Amino acid sequence: MSINSEYKPKIVAFCCNWCSYAGADLAGSNRLAYPENVKIIRVPCSCRVNPMFILRAFQRGADGVILCGCHPGDCHYTSGNYYTRRRMALLFSMLEYLGIEKERTRVEWVSAAEGAKFAATMNDFTQTVAALGENKRLEDLRCKR
Amino acid sequence: MQKITRENLINKAIELLDNGTVSRVLGWKIGEFAYDVTPAVFTTKEDLQKDFIFDDFCNANFSKYLIAETRKAEEKVLVFLKPCDTYSFNQLLTEHRFSREKVYAVGIPCEGMLDIGKIKALAGEGIIDVIPGEGSITVKNLYEEEKTLAYGDVLTERCLSCKSKKHVVYDELMGEEGDVIDSNRFDEVEKIEKMSADERFAFWQSQLSKCIRCNACRDICPACTCEKCVFDNPKSSVNNKAISDSFEEKMFHIIRAFHVAGRCTDCGECSRVCPQGIPLHLLNRKFIKDINSFYGDYQAGQEEGSRAPLINYTFDDLEPGEAVGRGV
Ligand code: SF4
Ligand code: SF4
Ligand code: FES
Questions:
Q1: Is B88 helix (H, G, I), strand (E, B) or coil?
Q2: How many angstroms does the Cα of residue B266 sit away from the middle of ligand 1?
Q3: Which of B88, B220, B221, B298 to mutate to test the pocket of ligand 1 (most atoms within 8 A of CB)?
Q4: What distance in angstroms lies between residue B132's CA and the mean position of ligand 1's atoms?
Q5: Count of structural domains, chain B
Q6: Residue B267: CB partners within 8 Å, gap ≥ 6?
C-alpha cells in the first residue's frame, strides 16, 4: 500500500448462479458502479459454499468475504439457502468467538432483479472492510508474496 | 470411588461369553502404571481375569471402536458404556456407523474419572500407585512418599461439568439409573464471549499455536468417522504440522469443530487426548451453545435418529448477521 493511493481492500463475493450472479449482471448492464476490487466467484447455489471456502479466501489474501444467494424461499434448488443460513450463522459466530472482526464476513440475499441492491451492497461492504484495514488475523504469510 | 467393581464387570463379561451372547469384549486393560489404562479386546476368561481393569482411570469412550470391532466377527461385541459414552453410541447409530444387532451394550454408572495430569501437577512425578478412598485418593511415589488428594481436585475437566449420569441406550444396566444434570458447562464459553475481540484473539492464538497436528483429537472423536478425511488430503495444505503459520492452526481447528457441529455429543474425548492440553471442548461447546440459543435446545445422541441441526432448517431462522449481533 503506497502512501498516495487509497487503500483498496480485496473483497471476495460468492454469488449463486441463479439469483445473485444474475443480479450482478443486471447491475453491470444498468451501469451501476460497484468497486472493481470485488471479485465475484460464481457458485451453483449459496449452499455450495462450505466454511472452508470462506477461510480459504481469507488465506489467499481476501480482506472481506461476502456470500450472496437467492432470497430465502426463492432458492433454485428449493432449500439450499436455508442450510446456508444456518451454516453461516454458526461459522460467523465462531469467527467472532476467535476474535476475528465480525464485519469482515457477510451474507446478503440478492435476487436476479436486484441489480441496484447488488451494487449498493458491494459499495457498503467494501467501505466497511476498508475501514477495518487489512486482514491480519486470518492471513497466511506464505500466500503474501 | 467407582461402586461397580472390576469383579462385577469381569463376571458379567464371562457370563456373556459363556452363554454365547458375545464373542468379544471391549474393555479397559491395565497398562504399565496404575493410571495408564488402555482400551483392549478380550476373548477369553483367562485374559479377562488377568488384564481387565475397572478403576478411576477408565476414561476411554468405546463407542467409536465399535465401528471396527463389529466388522471383525459374526457374533456380538460386548461393550461397557458410561453414561456420557451412550450419547456417542446413539449418535453413531443415528449415522448408521455400525449395526445395533452386533452389539451388546452394558451401561455402567460413573462417579467421574480422574485426570493423571492434575494428579501429577499436585503430587509430582514418579507416581507408582493411586489408591481410591472415600472422597479422596492416596498417591504413592517411587520415593516411598504418600499424598492424599481430594477427588474434586483431580477429576477430569469434562467430569466436573458432566451433563448426564443417565444412560440413553443399553441392553442391560448395572447399578442405579442416573439423571440428566443441570451442568455448568457453558460457563467457560461465556467467559470468553465476554472478553474483547483482541483478548479473544490473543487467547485462542496462544492456545491453538500449541497444536502439533498429531490429529489425536480427530482420531478419537466418535463424531469424526469419515473414512477419508479432508485433513489427510495432501492438497488441503492442512494435512501435516502447521509450519508455524497461524492461519493453518486456526483453519484446522475451525474446520475440525465445524465438521462435528450439531453432531458433537460433548463427550470430551478430544480435550482429554490432546497432548498439548488445548481446550478443544471450548470450541465444540461454542457451537453447541449457539445451536441451543439459535435453533432450540438440542443434545446430539440423546435420541437415536434425531435430525442434526445443520441438516435441518425452519423458514424463520435467524440471519447470519443477527448471529453476530450486527443486525441483518
Ligand atoms: S468433538 Fe470432542 S467432545 Fe465432541 S464428540 Fe468429538 S471427541 Fe467428543
Ligand atoms: S490433539 Fe491437540 S495437538 Fe493433536 S491435533 Fe488435536 S489439538 Fe492439535
Ligand atoms: S440457487 Fe441461489 S441460493 Fe440456492
A1: helix
A2: 5
A3: B221
A4: 28
A5: 3
A6: B61, B84, B85, B87, B88, B158, B222
In this structure, are B107 and B191 located in the same domain? Answer: no
Residue closest by Cα to atom 1 of ligand 2: B274
B322 found inside a domain: no
Range of B57's domain? 6-114+156-173
User: For B152-157, what is the mean pLDDT?
Assistant: 94
- Interchain pair A90, B202: CB under 8 A: no
SS3 B54: coil
Q: Which position has the grid cell 437415536?
A: B304
Q: How is residue B93 written as a grid cell?
A: 447409530
Categorize the per-residue pLDDT at B240 as very low, low, confident or very high, splitting at 50, 70 and 90.
low
Nearest-neighbour CA in chain B from A102: distance (Å)? 7
ipTM: 0.93
Query: Would you place residue B101 in the very low, low, confident or very high pLDDT band (cuts 50, 70, 90)?
Result: very high
Count of C-beta atoms within a 10 Å radius of residue B212: 12
Judge whether B162 lies within some domain: yes
- pTM confidence score: 0.93
Question: What confidence tens digit (pLDDT) does each residue in B65-86 have?
Answer: 999 999 998 999 999 999 999 9
CATH of domain A11-136: 3.40.50
- Residues B32, B127, single domain; the answer is no
What's the rounded mean pLDDT across residues B237-247? 68
